[in-house]
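Thread title: Can someone regenerate the structure for this chain?

I was given the following input by a collaborator and told the matching structure tokens would be attached. They weren't. Posting the sequence so someone can regenerate them.
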Amino acid sequence: MMRKEFFITMYTDATRMPFYEAMQSLVGKNVAIQTGLNVKQGLLVAVFPDLVVLEVCHVPFYYRVADITWVTPLTEHMR
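Best answer:
Regenerated them for you:
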């Protein structure tokens, strides 16, 4: 049983890194982030392994990576 729990933890940590690296490439760009509650659009100002910061009308919103369903960059016609 311990081995299975260890595998799940390692798998979860390993899948977080590609997301983190992809999010870093979007810093300074306008994005839309969907969580289980809603979709927010704004400027992605910071990315951490477990947290992203989205600025909407000069107000920072902090989202846990575990709560994010999807992220997409916004183009001019989408804003």
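The two ends are 49 Å apart (CA to CA).
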